[in-house]
Design goal:
Elements lengths: L23 H13 L5 E2 L11 H12 L12 H15 L9 E4 L1 H13 L5 E6 L4 H8 L3 E6 L10 H6 L5 E7 L11 H14 L2 E5 L24 E6 L12 E4 L5 H12 L4 H13 L1 H23 L14 E2 L4 H7 L3 H12 L1 E2 L1 E2 L10 E4 L4 H18 L3
Parallel strand pairs: 1-10, 3-4, 3-5, 5-6, 6-7
Antiparallel strand pairs: 2-8, 7-8, 9-12, 11-12
Helix pairs in contact: 2-9, 3-9, 4-5, 4-8, 10-13
Length: 403
Amino acid sequence: MTDSTVDYRLPVSRMRDALKGAGIREVVAKAEALERAGRKVIHLEIGRPDYDSPACAKAAAAAALERGEVHYTDTAGTPALRRAIAEARRRGAGMEVDPEREIIVTTGSIEALATVLLTLLEPGDEVLVPAPFFPAYSVQIALAGGILCPVPCRFENGFRLDPADLKAALTPRTRMILINTPNNPSGAVMGREELESVAALARDRGLLVVSDECYEKFLYEGQHVSIASLPGMRKRTVVLSAASKTFSMTGWRVGWMIVPPEVKPYAAKCHQHLTTCATSFAQAGVAEALRSADADVKRMIEGYRERRDFLTARLKDIPGFELHMPQGAFYLFPRVSVLTKALGLDAPGLAAWLLDQAGVAAVPGDVFRAQGDFLRMAYCRPLEELAEAADRIEAALKKSGVS
């Protein structure tokens, strides 16, 4: 065999589906290429808060650098950050968490998810995931040797999970349920009643639950409920969260998991061999944000509430967009089957068309395993950009003769 005929055996089975379709980063890359060519693009494709990180966090990280905190930390995270996470959990969820025995600080919530799946899944274990869902779930479940089992949440039901559908998806190989509330991409929020139905099933069938709560502060009505706080769920639930969205610290790459004490030694060892530890001075900044940045978070949430209300109303006025008012996160997830039919496209084709014809970047719902034609639009952009995006979409559709 010559160098020109190297057999890499790609894709390996774990990565078979990883490169299918146009994912979020692929849409970003196409939008940025248009910008380099001189086009103005409005970015509704990337789920990244556009606020600055809290000043107190930046000052604390800078001070840590000045103190020379540039070395490895404890694998599980600095004691100060773990204490701050535990205190935030007590205030927000009313739960007492042991920072020594139950908390692991990770390099973002993505690494936390990888760690828990690698720690708890055997090859062939099935994971039930309400769909639509964040695309990293399917890739990481595959990397851990698990099998993804999507449980459809329907547009007609506001993307709420039907307990009967969850129960119907069970098989003898089911090991885990992975939930995300508030949900990316739909913005749906699981209330206490829905969570209790998931908890009852987990207890009855001896299942584990992974609860992705990265958007827990992005709630526009009601109060966030963690499934880990429900009776009998503390010992069978792993909670994932991060500073990325809550404090607009996506580039800091600090997340964490709250695990049962029995799980921590194994998860900590897995985490150690993935990334060793999260960045030392970034941990100092996140600890200060957890202690002192509540006002910054509230200001950001209110800003996003205004943007949510504006863009929802504006899109509802454009024929072909069907959508629910999201209860949480910062995404709209409109159904666009009328538009795809009129233009003779599918959802990825419509997303590409909007980018080309209107200069508006959005992500097709296929990426999130949605059933039907949907687009995800992140409204974490200034109001004037959201207004321009809606105007551009409306003008492009009128020009095409669709509306």
